[in-house]
Design brief:
Layout (H helix, E strand, L loop, with lengths): L6 H20 L19 E6 L17 E11 L4 E6 L16 E5 L6 E7 L14 E4 L5 E9 L11 E2 L4 E4 L1
C-alpha cells in the first residue's frame, strides 16, 4: 500500500511552522513600570529579669543591734530604642498594715511561722535614700541593649522580736511604658 502525500498541503504545513517560529522569535515584549510601597513600625517592647536580693545572717543582738544588714540584688531590662517609662517595685507579699504603693512597708515572713516577720527596705540608690516603690518607680530610656540596675536593700536594725529561722518575700517588678 502506497501512501500518497499531497505536496501542496505538506509545503503549506512547513511554511506555516516556519512563520509561527519566526513570529515567536520576533514578537515584541512589553514592560510597564510600577511601584510597591513598603512599610513597618516598631512598637515599644521590653524584657526584664532579676537577681536575688539575698541578705546574709541577721544578728539582732550583735552586729545588727545598731546597724542595718545590707545587701544588693539586680534588675536587668532591655527595651526598644527610644522607648521610655518607669521600672516599679511592688510592696511584697507580706507588707505591713498601712503599707502603700507610694510608701511600701515591706517585710519577710518566717518559713514555718506565719506570724514572725523581719522588716526590710529596698532602694534605688547606693546611699539608700530613695525607696524603690510602685508609684513613680525608677525612670529608664530604652537603648536596645541590656541595662542593669542595682537593687540596694537593708534589713532594719534591732529587730529582736524575730525568731530563729529563714525568712523570705517576693516583690513584683514591672516595666511601665
Amino acid at each position: 500500500m502506497k501512501t500518497k502525500l499531497n505536496q501542496s498541503k505538506l509545503k503549506l504545513a512547513i511554511v506555516s511552522a516556519m512563520l509561527l517560529g519566526t513570529a515567536a522569535i520576533t514578537a515584541p515584549a512589553y514592560a510597564l513600570d510600577g511601584s510597591l510601597s513598603v512599610s513597618a513600625s516598631i512598637g515599644t517592647a521590653c524584657t526584664i529579669s532579676t537577681t536575688t536580693l539575698a541578705f546574709d545572717a541577721y544578728d539582732a543582738v550583735g552586729a545588727n543591734a545598731s546597724a542595718d544588714l545590707e545587701a544588693t540584688g539586680g534588675v536587668t531590662s532591655t527595651c526598644s530604642i527610644g522607648s521610655s517609662g518607669h521600672i516599679k517595685m511592688g510592696q511584697g507579699l507580706h507588707a505591713e498594715e498601712g503599707s502603700s504603693d507610694g510608701t511600701p512597708l515591706r517585710r519577710m515572713v518566717h518559713s514555718t511561722n506565719g506570724t514572725s516577720f523581719l522588716s526590710y527596705r529596698v532602694y534605688s540608690d547606693s546611699a539608700r535614700g530613695d525607696v524603690w516603690e510602685n508609684t513613680t518607680g525608677v525612670a529608664y530610656t530604652g537603648t536596645g541593649i541590656s541595662q542593669a540596675l542595682t537593687v540596694y536593700g537593708s534589713v532594719t536594725q534591732a529587730q529582736t522580736d524575730a525568731i530563729v529561722g529563714s525568712y523570705q518575700d517576693t516583690l513584683t517588678v514591672a516595666i511601665n511604658y
